[in-house]
Amino acid sequence: MATNIYVQDELETQESSRIKIKKTFIMEWENQTFNPDFILMGIFSYTPTHIFLFSLVLGIFTMALLANTLMVLLIYLDTRLHTPMYFLLSQLSLMDLMLICTTVPKMAHSYLSGRKSISLAGCEAQIFLYVSLLGAECFLLAVMAYDRYVAICYPLQYFSLMNWKLCGLMAASSWILGAFDGIVELAATLSFSYCGSREIAQFFCDVPALLHLSCTDTSTFETLIFICCVVMLLLPLSLIIISYTRVIITVIRMSSGEGQHKAFTTCTSHLIVVGMYYGAAMFIYMRPNSNRSPTQDKMVSTFYTIFTPMLNPLIYSLRNKDVAKAFSKVLGKRKSRE
């Protein structure tokens, strides 16, 4: 009799364990299936220092928003700026404007409201937009380098070699190639299964940060990212280096000191932007996962998604007399109307 009671208790214990395991499995499955939201950990806490840094980022965002919008409007309104060089510059400002609006507003909303979750659709939108814009800027910077090469090395043939049809085609190609890169990386990223923690160690849905959350093998996708980086980063960078090598050789051969100064001034602005942009992007996307640090990734991501969009229009406008004249002209018209 005692043996039967012992066996019955043992069976009940085993059944209870099976029920608990089954419930745990169902809960995990439900969380993965019906709660697809991710959690953005952000970069700021609520300490006085971080509150100051958050306010600083909002100030930088406001400056970038106003400066890039102003650049686009000035180039559109002033007929003297209706040249291929300034048209390409307006495209760069438009890309920077969209890039900073892709990440900062959501980061600010999460910080101020305390709601760090982002829906799957919101994460998809962020991935597509920022990858597309990063890729588009890579190709656009190469197009701008070619524009400077033609202007300095073949000044008399500039408007025939860099005509409006070719200029528009190259700008449109930059947007299209960037969008293609965004579609490829978005499709590959969303094909993975995400289980367990859905906390993204970033302030936006960054592809490298998402890879750490996947419970499937991502080695093939990491190879794909590397190939995309070669195409989207190294290929345009190679064209930029070749263009500016030819430019430097031409400038050195110039007999006029004034011509040399003007050429170097024009190209220096572009080279500063290229150095900042490509350096940060290559640091993020061309390092092996074993060498990654969430803190470093956050800092560098902040640089190329927030600081660079603010610096681009300032670098070009402060070093460009034509832009300054256009701004003075617009202000003069406004004062005369008042």
β-strand amount:
under 5%
Structural class determined from secondary elements: mainly alpha
Helix-residue proportion: over 70%
- What is the helix/strand order? HEHHEHHHEHHHHH
Mean model confidence by pLDDT = 79
pLDDT < 50 runs, ≥5 residues: 21-34
* Radius of gyration from the alpha-carbon trace, in angstroms: 26 Å
Shape: globular
Number of strands: 3
Tally of individual helices: 11
Largest sheet: 3 strands, mixed
Walk me through this protein's architecture:
The protein is an all-alpha fold and 338 residues long. It has eleven helices and three strands; from the N terminus they run αβααβαααβααααα. A three-stranded mixed beta sheet has the order 2-1-3. α2 runs antiparallel to α3 and α4 (120-153) runs antiparallel to α6 (164-190).
Give the arrangement of secondary structure elements:
Elements: H1 2-34, E1 38-40, H2 48-77, H3 84-113, E2 117-118, H4 120-153, H5 158-161, H6 164-190, E3 199-200, H7 207-211, H8 219-253, H9 257-285, H10 294-318, H11 321-337
Parallel strand pairs: 1-3
Antiparallel strand pairs: 1-2
Helix pairs in contact: 2-3, 2-10, 3-4, 3-10, 4-6, 4-8, 4-9, 6-8, 8-9, 9-10
Q: Could you write a compact summary of the structure shown?
A:
This protein has helices spanning 2-34, 48-77, 84-113, 120-153, 158-161, 164-190, 207-211, 219-253, 257-285, 294-318, 321-337, and strands at residues 38-40, 117-118, 199-200.
What labels describe this entry?
338 residues, mainly alpha, 2% strand, globular
